[in-house]
């Protein structure tokens, strides 16, 4: 060890210590990603020898109307998975935080509960809710709104929003708990100062609460947007992409093509594209949050 | 690492990876099709000590019971052959079989789904062994009617479905027909319909009587395929349906007969014959509702017999879809359970064939009947109690004896299940006209049939 360098400076030998972890990371993450990228350049049925097609699979994603629609559906789901829960979560968290409700822990648990249940179970339960003779239609019937009853998941207009609402229900708890944690850290003096300046509850919310939880909002958005883009189980269980193709999403197409249609190359190309899209969007969200904080 | 270094490393990695194409690097070794009848050893007891690995999907109720019973009997008879049974659900088997077969030590006997995306793909990749030599010595062609055997036939290159080498033998049969609720029919003063026109009249009467004429749930996309297939069988000649469903050149969806069939189906929607909100109702909830007495008719397959009989008892009836006249030859969508096939790499094909022969023998068919399954062969010889089970046995026996089974339409191309399922949802929801519906099907069928040669 030469004394010339101060301790703690990076030096080459440090990479040696990183090597074991990197090897594991490479074997279980980088290698599969590399293989997926490789597969996406072939026309391969998963069994016989693949045929090199270059970027054809990617070109097909752009050209295929159905696939473009699938990516479009994923964007619609972002509204339900990320934006909806964010608005509801902000409201709920502000109320829970502000009112200093008794038994806050209880309410927090109730709100968070959907997160504990596996998505598959959630999907099966909601399928029953949306069925033609299901809970939702029974409820509408009881309210005298028989004209509105329908097979929700089989309706071309309502199937995608119906799937989205399940996402809203699922993600709201997570977002609320995250925001609640952020809000509980806001010093009381800030609110006192705002109140002295004559701010009402609404003003207070926009001037103090909202800017203080920007970091939590970024985390919540990142998590929920990714959840929206990679939705698979919910669509698989509830609609299988139907009716027609009105609820198909990229993740479902990956599974469907790889295991159902034996188009492994095409499936890999969709997977890679989806990964890139998710990466870009979450990168964007974090960039946005960082800039505003500083 | 700075970003350029990282990128370079990644690029290098990708380059190394792309050096070889995915899939088996050598062309599959062609299994010896030259095995003649004389080279086949049928005396299983003389094959020495052998372990057979068998992958099946007989996991539920009567299916599991018959498999266990037959396996035990086989082991008792041939103690030198040890069975290593691996049993998985239909979905799990479908998704894992592909990987298992492309490995170096695949199972010896597997249940492979008949369609092009499974059995067809395996044949094309040279992973299944043609069984014709065994069929000759064991007399399988006498045991099974050709209308059943053709569901396991492919040309050696996997391109032609429905003719060519035999690649598997099924145990159970399936036919799509009409379940009806005997008690409700009687209450409405109706008889089981004898002709297709009778059936439509009955539907109208049931509707007028305030009951659900046809129980139906199409949320899972595929159930409508069976209903459409049944209607199509009334209007389109069976050989044309066969050509379309096996994905062969020489037929077309754009015909007046197919249009009539599609129009009739839409007509049923307009007249309110189907259960309300059917596109948003699951398949299972739908037949369960029928079991609870909601709905007078239901177009579905014989695989529902056991469950429906449990719910409705002798109120349940089953019939083949009636023809234009009472004595018209029967035509019904149907086929076989998953056939048992022998993998090309199996080192014990003779033992595997002896096993398949054993579980599809006349004695095995009796075991299948006793455990509540519908045996694919010798159906007429089985004695079952009068009632719904006998209805089903009679129906299947009649339709196979007269070679009246037409294949499932989704066999046509590797993507046809999806295309047809989605197109039918569009048609039934009136998002597509019958002409647009048929054009969608024609596009998928034509492009596959032409590229497949």
TrEMBL record, chain A:
Membrane topology of this protein: Multi-pass membrane protein
GO terms, biological process: transmembrane transport
GO CC annotation: plasma membrane
Matching CDD domains: TM_PBP2 (cd06261)
PROSITE patterns referenced in this protein's UniProt entry, alphabetically: ABC_TM1
UniProt subcellular location: Cell membrane
Annotated TM spans: 12-34, 74-94, 106-126, 158-181, 217-238, 258-285
Signal peptide start and end residues: none
Domain (ABC transmembrane type-1): residue spans on this chain: 71-285
Protein keywords: Cell membrane, Membrane, Transmembrane, Transmembrane helix, Transport
InterPro entries in the cross-refs: MetI-like, MetI-like_sf, UgpAE/MalFG_permease
Keyword Iron-sulfur: no
Similarity annotation: Belongs to the binding-protein-dependent transport system permease family.
Protein name, per record: Carbohydrate ABC transporter membrane protein 1 (CUT1 family)
UniProtKB/TrEMBL annotation, chain B:
UniProt GO molecular function: maltose binding
The UniProt record lists the keyword Ion transport: no
GO biological process, one term: maltodextrin transmembrane transport
Family matches, as InterPro entries: SBP
Gene Ontology, cellular component aspect: ATP-binding cassette (ABC) transporter complex, substrate-binding subunit-containing
Gene3D superfamilies the UniProt entry points to: Periplasmic binding protein-like II (3.40.190.10)
Keyword Cell membrane: no
Keyword set, alphabetical order: Signal, Transport
Signal peptide stretch: 1-26
Protein family (similarity comment): Belongs to the bacterial solute-binding protein 1 family.
Alphabetized PANTHER family for the sequence: MALTOSE-BINDING PERIPLASMIC PROTEIN, MALTOSE_MALTODEXTRIN-BINDING PERIPLASMIC PROTEIN
Protein name per Swiss-Prot or TrEMBL: Carbohydrate ABC transporter substrate-binding protein (CUT1 family)
């Amino acid at each position: 060890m030469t004394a010339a360098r101060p301790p703690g400076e990076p030096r080459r030998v440090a990479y040696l210590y990183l090597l074991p972890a990197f090897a594991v990371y490479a074997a279980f993450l980088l290698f599969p990603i590399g293989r997926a990228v490789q597969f996406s350049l072939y026309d391969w049925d998963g069994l016989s020898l693949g045929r090199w097609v270059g970027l054809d699979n990617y070109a097909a994603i752009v050209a295929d109307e159905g696939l473009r629609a699938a990516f479009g559906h994923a964007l619609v789901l972002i509204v339900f998975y990320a934006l909806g829960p964010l608005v509801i979560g902000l409201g709920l968290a502000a109320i829970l935080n502000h009112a200093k409700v008794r038994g806050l822990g209880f309410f927090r648990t109730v709100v968070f509960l959907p997160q504990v249940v596996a998505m598959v179970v959630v999907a099966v339960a909601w399928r029953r809710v949306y069925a033609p003779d299901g809970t939702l239609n029974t409820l509408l019937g009881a309210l005298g709104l028989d004209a509105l009853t329908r097979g929700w998941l089989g309706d071309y207009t309502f199937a995608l929003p119906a799937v989205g609402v399940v996402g809203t229900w699922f993600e709201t708890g997570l977002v609320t708990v995250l925001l609640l944690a952020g809000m509980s850290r806001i010093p009381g003096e800030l609110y006192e100062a705002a109140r002295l300046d004559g701010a009402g509850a609404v003003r207070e919310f926009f001037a103090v609460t909202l800017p203080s939880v920007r970091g939590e909002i970024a985390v919540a958005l990142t998590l929920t947007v990714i959840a929206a883009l990679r939705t698979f189980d919910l669509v698989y269980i509830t609609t299988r992409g139907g009716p027609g193709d009105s609820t198909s999403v990229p993740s479902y197409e990956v599974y469907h093509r790889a295991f159902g249609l034996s188009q492994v190359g095409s499936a890999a190309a969709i997977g890679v594209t989806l990964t890139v899209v998710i990466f870009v969007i979450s990168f964007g969200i974090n960039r946005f949050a960082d800039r505003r904080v500083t | 690492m700075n970003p350029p270094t990282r990128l370079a490393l990644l690029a290098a990695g990708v380059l190394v990876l792309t050096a070889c194409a995915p899939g088996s690097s050598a062309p599959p070794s062609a299994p010896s099709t030259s095995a003649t009848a004389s080279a086949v050893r049928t005396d299983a007891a003389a094959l020495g000590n052998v372990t057979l690995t068998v992958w099946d999907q007989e996991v539920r109720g009567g299916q599991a019971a018959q498999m266990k019973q037959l396996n035990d009997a086989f082991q008792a008879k041939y103690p030198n052959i040890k069975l290593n049974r691996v049993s998985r659900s239909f979905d799990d088997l479908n998704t894992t079989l592909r990987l298992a077969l492309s490995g170096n030590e695949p199972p010896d006997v597997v249940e492979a789904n008949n369609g092009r995306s499974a059995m067809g793909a395996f044949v094309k990749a040279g992973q299944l062994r043609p069984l014709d030599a065994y069929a000759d010595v064991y007399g399988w062609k006498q045991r099974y009617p050709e209308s059943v055997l053709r569901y396991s036939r492919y040309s050696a290159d996997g391109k032609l479905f429905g003719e060519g080498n035999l690649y598997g033998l099924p145990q159970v049969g399936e036919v799509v027909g009409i379940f009806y609720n005997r008690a409700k029919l009687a209450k409405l003063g109706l008889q089981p319909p004898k002709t297709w026109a009778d059936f439509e009249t009955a539907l109208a009467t049931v509707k007028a009587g305030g009951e659900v004429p046809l129980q139906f749930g199409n949320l899972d996309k595929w159930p409508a395929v069976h209903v459409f297939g049944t209607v199509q069988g009334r209007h389109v000649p069976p050989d044309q349906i066969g050509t379309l469903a096996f994905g062969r050149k020489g037929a077309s969806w754009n015909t007046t007969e197919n249009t009539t069939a599609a129009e009739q189906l839409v007509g049923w929607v307009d007249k309110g014959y189907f259960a309300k909100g059917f596109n948003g109702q699951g398949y299972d909830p739908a037949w369960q509702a029928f079991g609870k007495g909601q709905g007078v008719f239901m177009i579905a397959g014989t695989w529902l017999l056991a469950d429906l009989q449990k719910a409705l008892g002798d109120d349940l009836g089953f019939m083949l879809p009636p023809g234009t006249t009472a004595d018209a030859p029967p035509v019904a969508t149907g086929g076989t359970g998953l056939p048992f096939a022998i993998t090309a790499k199996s080192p014990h094909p003779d033992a595997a064939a002896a096993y398949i022969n054993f579980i599809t023998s006349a004695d095995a068919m009796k075991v299948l009947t006793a455990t509540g399954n519908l045996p694919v062969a010798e159906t007429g010889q089985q004695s079952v109690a009068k009632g719904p089970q006998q209805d089903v046995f009679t129906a299947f026996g009649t339709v196979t004896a007269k070679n009246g089974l037409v294949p499932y339409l989704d066999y046509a191309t590797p993507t046809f299940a999806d295309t047809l399922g989605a197109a039918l949802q569009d048609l039934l929801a009136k998002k597509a006209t019958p002409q647009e519906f048929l054009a969608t099907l024609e596009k998928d069928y034509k492009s596959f049939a032409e590229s497949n040669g």
